Amino acid sequence: QGDAIVFLDCHVKPMETWTAPIIAHLQENPRRVVVPAITSLDPDTWEEVSSFGGGTKMCLTWNADFTWCNEFPGPYVPIMSGGLLAMTKFWWDSI
């Protein structure tokens, strides 16, 4: 019965206060899909090894190769990473 719908892959470990930046972006624009940042976890302990898991923005080359493109201008992400996304219930019900 919340205001947001969040999808995470089964191998994702949300950190403390992980919802705050996501909710802030959704409140800024209810018709936005938000992609959380990806960190790097130790596969045996599930402890965060690095806050950098590869990048925050994904792109495809003209050869359809995946690449991180953190230098892509602006706050927008060209491609969503797997099953990691959040949207408002309002937007979910609208589409």
Residue share in helices? 10-25%
The count of strands amounts to 6
Order of helices and strands: EHEEEEEH
Unreliable runs: none
- Summed over residues and divided by their number, the pLDDT gives a mean of 83
What shape does the CA trace take?
Answer: globular
Relative strand content? 15-25%
Largest sheet: 2 strands, antiparallel
Q: Which value, in Å, is the CA radius of gyration? A: 14 Å
Number of helices: 2
Q: Whole-Å distance between the termini? A: 18 Å
How does this model look, in words?
The chain has 95 residues and is an alpha+beta fold. The protein is built from two helices and six strands; from the N terminus they run βαβββββα. It has helices at residues 19-28, 89-94; strands spanning 4-7, 40-41, 48-50, 58-60, 66-68, 85-88. The strands form three sheets. It has a two-stranded antiparallel sheet with strand order 1-6. A two-stranded antiparallel ribbon has the order 2-3. A two-stranded antiparallel ribbon has the order 4-5. Strand 2 (40-41) and strand 3 (48-50) form a beta hairpin. The longest helix is centred in the first third of the chain and has 10 residues, at 19-28. The chain is globular and about 35 Å long. It starts with a strand and ends with a helix. The mean pLDDT is 83.
